[in-house]
Amino acid sequence: MGKTYKAVIYIKPNDEKIREVCDDFKVFVDDKEYSPYPFLLVSHTYLFDWDFTAVYDELKSVNLGDSITAYTGNYVDFPETIGVKTQYGSITMADVTWTGTDSINTSTPAGNYEVTAKLTLPNNVTATEEQKNRTVTVKVRSLINSVTLKTVDGNVPAKSGESLPTSLNVVKSNGASLVENSFSVSPNDETAVKDTEYTITAKVKPDENCEFAADTIFTINGISMNASPAENGEYELTYTFTAEEVQSYDVIVNGGTSQKYKEGDTVNISTSPSDFYKWTAETVYEATETVEKEDGSTEAVPVTYRNPVNIFEYGDELKAETSFIMPKLADGRRLEITAEYVGISYDMQTGTATVMSDNEYTGVKVIFASYLGDRLVSAQSEDVNLKAGSNTVTAPESFTTAGADNIKVMVWDGFDSIKPLFEHFEK
User: Fold this and answer.
1) HSE on the CB side for 288, CA within 13 Å?
2) 387, 351, 360, 350: which is closest to 274 by C-alpha?
3) Which of 139, 102, 95 is nearest to 117 (CA)?
4) Which residues sit opposite 183 in a β-bridge?
5) What pLDDT, on the 0 to 100 scale, is given for residue 213?
6) 408 closest CA partner among 421, 420, 425
7) How far apart are CA 209 and CA 111, in angstroms?
8) Contacts of 344 (CB under 8 A, 6+ apart)
9) pLDDT grade for 14, boundaries at 50, 70 and 90
10) Highest mean pLDDT range out of 27-36, 108-117, 126-135, 400-409?
11) Are the C-beta atoms of 353 and 425 separated by less than 8 Å?
């Protein structure tokens, strides 16, 4: 730095048609005047001598902002080199030494954390201490992947005659809430009108130090909503539906009289309290099929179609008195419920087995076993005397179903013969 250098620069016309220059031909560099002289080895080319002194360059800008955004559970990359620009327009690299980053890792909770970046610049670039020592805020944010909304005082989608919701609740989220006064229903009817299209709108906002992921899933009553980004990191949600007429269906229990129930109704059913049954359900409908006769002619014959359907909550099909929510059926279908006798049943909530015995048995073994796949998790037994009819047996306290996906209850006459007295229960 500070040393004087001499450079010889040659110039020539851009256009070959220009062969001569005027006698007072001058060249200016940074407002300094130079007098070119002909270059004898190349025609129409001129040289001039340029004396210059090397000087220090000053730092102008750094390719590093005031903050770095990171996300919980992810590593944060702190660059070791970074691009800088000088006052004279040069672009070069600076080494970076970070302090205060030891606490920033995959376990760091959401929040703002200050770290320091110290720049080591090339020898020919000068900077102030403030420019070389920069405070950077690491913004650790928690990503919101899903938001589950539920209607209040109404349903969505609403059937004709049903109440429309008055508001929404966030029932499950990892960092989001409703924007106050953002909920609306259009048109603003109290109850749904058949064939009317309704639109539900609402806004949700991220909690402090949270952000919505690009693929965040928003649902209302288990149905996906349309979502579009709004200001301040919020999302505007919409869901549109057309109110349909509530359908009624025939329900027949144990071959009895058909009764009408609407979709969504609670249907209570029961059988003799002295027995224990397993309920099964089928959707049933009649149709006609065209069949070919031996003489080649065809005729339409009636056909009944039966399809099993699961309408009971887990374990409710094994209760003598139970209920279910009337599902929506296809046009022309009815629901038939049938009770079947089972020898052994097990109530998951109370941990008790019911054994329907055909006779009296003394000193039999009731075995409770739980499995995860084919692996035994827990197995315990009780010695009991069975009377003819219904018997209640409580599983031992040491028996557990935790971590199991399958449960069996068996009744043997003893461990010597291992002879089952009834068909075992399995769920």
Assistant:
1) 5
2) 387
3) 95
4) none
5) 92
6) 425
7) 6
8) 353, 354, 355, 356, 409, 410, 411, 422, 423, 424, 425
9) low
10) 108-117
11) yes
The residue with tokens 């890792």 is 105
From CA 149, how far away is CA 220, in angstroms rounded? 5
CA distance 62 to 82: 8
* Cα Rg of the chain, angstroms: 42
Cα–Cα distance for residue pair 400/287, rounded to 1 Å: 49
Q: In terms of pLDDT, which residue wins out, 224 or 38?
A: 224
Query: What is the structure's pLDDT at 227?
Result: 94
Token pair in block for residue 230: 């709004």
Peptide bond into 38 cis (omega under 30): no
Looking at residue 2, its pLDDT comes to 46
Contact 314, 349 (CB under 8 A): no
Q: What is the maximum span of the chain, computed from C-alpha positions, in angstroms?
A: 135
